[in-house]
Structures are given as structure tokens and as C-alpha cells.
Amino acid sequence: SCDQCIQKHPQCAWCSKSNLKFNETKPQTKDFCSRKTSALCDQAFVEMPRSNANFAQNQQFSTREEAVVVQLRPQVIDINLRKGDTVKFNVSFRKVKDYPVDLYYVMDLSNSMKDDLAELQKLGESLATQIRQNVTSDINMGFGTFVDKVMMPFTSTVPDQLINPCAKSKEACAPPFGFRHQQSISGDLTAFKQSVQNTNISGNIDSPEGGFDALMQIAVCGGQIGWRGDASHLVVFTTDASFHTALDGKLAAILDANDMKCHLKRALVYDKSKELDYPSIGQLRAAFVANKIQPIFAVTKEVRSLYDGLKELIPNSFVDELASDSNNIISIIKTAYNKLQMSLDDDNKPEGVGISYRTLCPNATTWSDNSLSCNQIQLGSEVTYEFTVTATACPTTSASNTMLFTSSSLQESVTFRFNFLCNCNCSSMVEQKSIDCSSNGSMVCGACLCDQGHEGSRCQCTQNTIGLSLSAQCKRSDSADICERNGECLCGICDCHENFHGKYCQCSNTGCPVTDGNNCYNQPKCNCTAKINNIPYTLDNVGSCTCHESNCIDPSNPNATVCSSHGNCSCSICECDPKYDGKYCQDCNSPLCKTVTAECSSHEACAICVNSAPGKQHYISLDLFLRQRLAHKRNRPGSVKSPTTSCGINRARTTWCSLKNSTKQQANIWVHKTDDCPKPIDPVIIVLPIVAGIVVLGMIALIAWKVYQTWRDKREWQVFENEMKKSKWTKGQNPIFEEASTRFENPTFHGT
Fold this sequence. Notes:
About 20% of the residues lie in helices and about 25% in strands. By secondary structure, it is α+β, with helices and mostly antiparallel strands. The strands form 14 sheets. The chain has a 6-stranded mixed beta sheet, sandwiched between helices. Helix 7 (about 210-220) packs parallel to helix 9. The radius of gyration is 51 Å and the shape is flat. Residues about 20-30, about 515-525 and about 615-665 have low confidence and may be disordered. Belongs to the integrin beta chain family.
């Protein structure tokens, strides 16, 4: 069908103009689907969709003075994808001057941060002033602090420690708490300064702090914190300690997981600190992404490596090293503000879509592959993101086809809307009971879609009852093409094109099969017509005409014959007779092919070999055998018929060896067997005594050991009995012994 055609390969095109005529036996067009169809078919009837990207919304970049700030363009992209095809497009970002920023400063108030609090109090209002001068003029600020859950083992619950956790060091500290929101985000810098000045240091027991509780409430309590909808949301998190995370609450018997909800009620203090566990890193990530918050972790050198790992898990987060007294906090905020980390919500990526990207940062000369991050973005500078999108398959579900390209430091985003080109436009135009389909089917995109029980290019065939469709009967396997694309399937039978034959048109009349080297499946073999010296080629093992006898003739020998007349030519390779080898069977490997001398001494070894194994049959190849006696053996007269290809043993006392040589002469060697040779020793006679000796020695050793143990035990028992007879026992009274019961008399009792 047309739909299957455009999904098969991105270069395939379908010609929807029908060439079928009702009175014709078969269609004139061999294939509706082809890479050449677009060139052979009228363009008005070609179905060949291509992947493309259309910018549905593409507003120009704006300035801060305009009502709507635009830093990303285009804003909406419609991506039309064909299976296997690729589309590329760019997205640009330009930084606007004085883009609004909401900055929330949250600080660890454990006793080790005393110097940092003093520095922040010293900065006070000047902190906001420096941010306005170095970052953006449109800055609003808020302030909050945290310690940890006021429960053992995180914080001491001793009454005196709850009032002043620094009492042991003779310092005055504020009572411990979980998280306290002290100043909402606003442009009132005097209120920010006053809030910082009114803050006192506190303390707890363990080293990790409850900063995750604070971050979760800052993220989800937008109303209380005061986040603006059109501003960048930055959270500056300062600490010198590690953090508690999910499941740590079990140490204090807190079993309920963090619910990711706002709980800032009484005096803007986190009032579920003792009831809910710490949030997990995944929960913080989700909260930051949902509320578009960029966290900035300003931490000391000792815990820098820990928070660097956290940066990999929370998108668009920033980590930098905080000076011992926090005097570099302005530069940290500026560096984070000038960094842009974009992201794609891969969770919503449609099924069967592959996306790759690269980034060209300002002042960069090369693209950064698989990166969406840029540093030191100045005002007015532009960042370009290039996306390459490919559809590897048509989706099988109706899941969301929309993705967002955005950043947690931006309120803007780019929407990717996906549409899949898996169906032809002509598929919706159906001609029912078309006469061109023998009135047994519908005409769709120029091809017949047959009704149940009918098949064929124009539905002229009736299905049989063998269990296979007519088209399946024209395929040698489920994955093969119909008639190997060398013919047409007419009612279950392949009608082959010119120069092809076979049940599936898999054999070529001009030399070889055209599909993946398969044989002809018991069909008439391919006809080999080419010849050399009037001798035709023959088929190889895959049915191709590549074999010829000329490849079995030694070219260096003008008088050579096929395989030197010592073998058969099998597909250009000589298969030699047993006595010959070599590429052309030109070498004889048998001793019969060699010239030998008729001397007894040269065959003495064979005679001795035969004589050395009486009663056993041997076969040894010899050069020549002479009818004469050996110098040191007596000849036995008589004429015995000898085997012509063996060296054997006669079970009588006479043994012979014989073999015909290349001159067809026959000679015998006679060996007289004598009885003076010693007989070999039977191995059983040697093995049995050795085994019996080992067994006997083992039994003797066991008996001796048992006798010794019995004698030793008897002697020890006698010694024990003698000691018992010499023992004397005496009877005495324990001086501290008291009777178990005591009698008391009531002095006021008067008996009757």
C-alpha cells in the first residue's frame, strides 16, 4: 500500500495514478512504489512526503521596555517527520538587558557559620546595591534561614539546649528550628537589611544540616516567598556542611515521606519539620523544574565535592566555593546569572524519535556537541542551538507529541510539536467496488485493496484454502520480496520478467541469481550460456555461472590436461585421486610413483615389523618386494598368493609382505617365524601383587593403631582408679549456713 511504501524507506515514492485497465491481464506498471517513481510519474500523482520544520510562532527579540519580553525564538515549532528521514532547525537566545531577577538568600545558621552571618550583616543593603550594579537593575530580594529538625539525634532536646544550644561554649544563640522564612522577596532593600541584622546564630548536634527542608518550602511556597511570574528565580544556598536527605528522618522515627507541599503557616516557620521526612534529591529536582528555580550552592571548600555531585542531578544548578567569610558572594551570583543551561523534557519525547543537538556559544568558533550550556553570556550576545530530529518508527500509541525546550532560569520556553507523516494523502480517497479492481475491491492511491476472499493486482484472483495468501505463495520466505522483484504474482503464481525463471523468479537466464546468493530451490537451474573454448560455464554451489574447466588446467604446461588426468574438476577446483595432490593434481604422493632398487636390505625393516607382531593384521606401504630370502632368515619354499596392497600376517608360521610396483612386477619377502623370541610379561602379574601388598600393609597399620589405643586407654583407667582409692573425704559444717525457716513469737499474743 501507499502507507507501507512511504514507511519502507525515506527515498521511496508512490505513484497514485492507476495504470490498470479492466480488460488487461496484468498492470502495465511493474511497481507503484519505487525510488524512480517520482521521475517516471506525473508529479501531481506522486506521494513522497519529506520531513520539515515550520515555525508556527516566531516573534522577534525584544527589549526590556517592551510589554512582552522575548529572549527565545522561534516560540513554537511544528516538526513533521517521515520514518527514516531527518530534519534540522535552529533555536536562538539573546539576553535582554536588566531582565528581572528574584533572589532568595537562604543561610545555614549552625554555629560554624557565625563568621558568614557577620559578613552578610556587614554587607546588608550594599549586597543588593552591588547586585544591581554588576548583575541587573531589576532585582528583588528575600531572606530565610535553617538549622535542622529539633529532634534527637539531629538537635539536642535537653531543655537548656533548646533555649540556648551554645550554652556549653558560654555564648548566646537563638533556639534551634527547622526553616524560618524571615523576609519575603521585594524591592524593599531596607527591609532585607533589617531582616539580616535581626538574625542570630543557632546550633545543632550532628554535622549534616536540614537545608533540603528549606529548599523544598522555598520552591513550593511561591505565594509566601513572593516569586514574580515574569522574573528569573534564583536561590542562593550558603552552608559549610553536608545535607540530610530522604530516609534520614527514620533516625528520629519520622516515617512519613515529604509531601512536596507548602507548610509555612505559624510565624512563617516550617511547621511539619517533626512530622515529614527530608525531601529526596529527585523531589527537589521536580520542585525546581516545576517552579523554574535555579539553585546556587555557595559552599565551603570542605564540602565542595559533595555539592558538585548534586549539580549533576539537579538541572541548571550552580556550585561555587564560598570564602571562609562569604566575601565573594557577589561574584558567585554574577557568574551564575551569566550562565545559561537549557534542557529538553525527555520524559515527553514521542516514541520512535531521536534528537541530537549542539550549541554555538558567543565568541566561540566551534560547535559544542551534545551540550546545551553556555557561560559568560553578555548583554545582547546570541546563543544558537542546532537540533537534528529523526523518526525511527511511526508511533504505536497516541501519547503526547509535545516537548518543551526551556531553562529553570527563564520563564520562556520553545514548544516542539511533532506530527508523523505515516499515511499518504490519497489514502483517504477510496473508490469502493472499482471496476478497475474487478468490482472485488476498492481503488486506493491507484492500487486495488481487495475484498475478503480476493487477491491479485486487480482482485481478479480467488483465494484458495491451503492456508497461504496468494501473495505469500509467490514468496520463498516471509521476509522475501514477491517473485524476488523479478516478476508479477498472478493468482499465486509468479509470472517472471524477461531473462528470469524459477518458481519465485529467482534464477537468471543470463548467469546467476540476483538475490543474496540463494540457489534455485529445486526449480530449473540457471542456464549458463557463456563459453570458453566452446566449453560452457557450470553452476557453483549457489547457482551462479562461475565455474569452468579452464581453471583446472595448469597454464605453465602446454600439454596439461584437466587436473593432469588424475582427478575431477569441481567448480574450477581439482579434486585429486588418492595418490595425487597439488593444485592441478600434478604431484604423486604414493611410493609406487618412485624408482626403487630391488635389494633385500632396503626391506628388512618391513619384514622385521611384520614378524614382531604375531597374530595381528598390519598394513604398511612398501616401495618394492623381492622374491628372495633375507640374509639372516631361512627362506621357506612354496608359492603363496599374496595381497597386492598390504603388509600382513599369516596366521600360520609363515608371514609375507607384497605389493605391486609401478612396473606391475610382483615380488615376495618370506619371513620365517622362530620361537626363540621371549614372550612379553603379562601386566596383570605385575599389578595384582602391588595392589594386594598395599591393602595388606594398610590393614596391618590399622590393626597396630587399634591395639595401641586400647592398651593406652586401659593404662589411663588403671591410673584413675588408683587415684580414687587414695582420696579421703571429710564432713564439716558451713559457718555461714542458716536454716531456711525461722520461728518468731508475737509478744502481744496471750494464749488461752
